[in-house]
Amino acid sequence: MNPLFSSFRLSALAAASLLAVSVQAAEPIKIGVPVGLSGANSVVAPAVVQSSQLAVDEINAAGGILGRQVQLEIADDGSGAVGAQKAFDTLVFQKKVDAVIGMETSAARSAALPIVARGKTPYIYTSFYEGRSCSKWMYVNGWVPEQQVAPVVDYFTKEKKAKTFFLIGSDYSFGRGMLSFTKKYIEQTGGKVVGEEYLPMDGSDWTAIVSKIRSANPDALISSTAGGAPNVSLAKQLQGAGLKQPYGNLAIDEGTAKTMGVVATGMYLSASYLTSIDTPENKRFIEAMTKKFGNDLKTPNELSEPQYEAFFLYKAAVEKAGTTESEKVIAALAEVSFKGPRGVVQMNKSRHAALAMQLGEVQADGSIKILQTFPSVDPGPQCPNIK
Questions:
Q1: Cα 312 from Cα 346, distance rounded (Å)
Q2: Are the CB atoms for 76 and 98 separated by under 8 Å?
Q3: Which of 39, 90, 331, 384 ranks highest by number of CB atoms within 10 Å?
Q4: Which helix (H) or strand (E) holds 303?
Q5: How far apart are CA 30 and CA 22, in angstroms?
Q6: What is the pTM of this model?
Q7: Ordered domains of the chain (ranges, CATH)
Q8: pLDDT band at 228 (very low <50, low <70, confident <90, very high)
Q9: Predicted confidence (pLDDT) at residue 60 exceeds the cutoff of 70
């Protein structure tokens, strides 16, 4: 073979290889965001989308991830199992996203897990939930009952002298899971549950349950609904019935509370994020959100802020791994952390995170007054055997 031709051929191959690497590096990293744009979560979904958009803008402005820009792919999961299957199929197998970051109902999450497993796609679940949902491909930065229930129950017991409780929920895994844990905790601490009632996820007529509450006459009420719309309908009907017991809501977020107006006043909640958290990181986050969205800003809340920080946790994992290759990113996710509006978050507690929890009370203007703070609350043994 002519040496000159051979040299030319090798140069051409090297150039082609460099071009292929360059093209790959230029390709965006796709992150899928499945969220309930319709259904029960439609009240909170816009805030989740906004926080996702801000995170992507900030990451891209700083050079992206491994020099690649991030591309957002949003899909409506309908707030339920059927919609989630369609949304995840689209994101994982059609859009071929590199990762999924999503705030969803438990029904949607449960339907999605087999799909991310089949696609071997890293999934950061950013919603609070009932706990103990485990997958090799999923990490969680939202709270679980072990972190969220005690502040509300203990406050009612000690400060409101409550001895009897009535529990109200949506009839699915989150509602029942949260209230099952709550009932056990109430009984362990010397209280008594005098009623426990549920409506379907999309139910809106709480009349029969309100009547049972009136008959039982408990010292305090605690609810765990599908969030969003069920929160609104339940609170309105409790107020309309003239019930005055202390009311703790295990599924309310600050944004929904503000949209509810006077019906949310006096409601108690336990959260890992509130806009009133007084840290430089939270102030910067609020300012950035306000600057980007102006009058269209949806109140940052317990369901949207974890979504924001999850993008940075994913970024840190990819950069630690040096690649978007799924197995390596999954391994890195337990090792990285991010200091954001909630403080330092690391998902190293059996794929969950220790979180600072805030006990708050909704004020007349919709703001949340922080009554107590509980630093670094452990999530307990959620997924200890997942490899």
A1: 11
A2: no
A3: 39
A4: none
A5: 17
A6: 0.90
A7: 24-144+276-354 (3.40.50.2300), 146-271 (3.40.50.2300)
A8: confident
A9: yes
